[in-house]
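Hi R.,

Here's the chain you asked about this morning:
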Amino acid sequence: MEAICVSTPPRIIIHDNVSVGYNCQINSCQMIEIKEGCLLGSNVFITDHYHGNGTLQESAILPSKRILYSKGPVIIEENVWIGQNVAIMPNVTIGKGCIIGANSVVTHSFPPNFVVAGVPAKIVRSLS
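And here is the predicted structure, written out as tokens:
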């Protein structure tokens, strides 16, 4: 999926019974949705965008002045447990019931009911 420059109002949707730990950052320029029953540990970082498109030409511009680009929304399905210090990057859907291990960096989507961990995060085991 190609990055897009986002000009629509950002949306952050947090459903009922979501617990958010200390010092979490949820940064949106397109859309982030956290569905019911999720638990986010401390220092979790969730973003749906990047500052700039990663070209050499843009490196001359201060990062804070670059256009925001999104590769897609972040969707966290029901009853997901996200450990401490996890980073969730753009264009990711985390399936219902997943557990994301502490200190993981989630760069792609995962189906429901898996334990995932690592940098980048990968499936560790099934919950079935």
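One quick note: The mean pLDDT is 92.

Cheers,
M.
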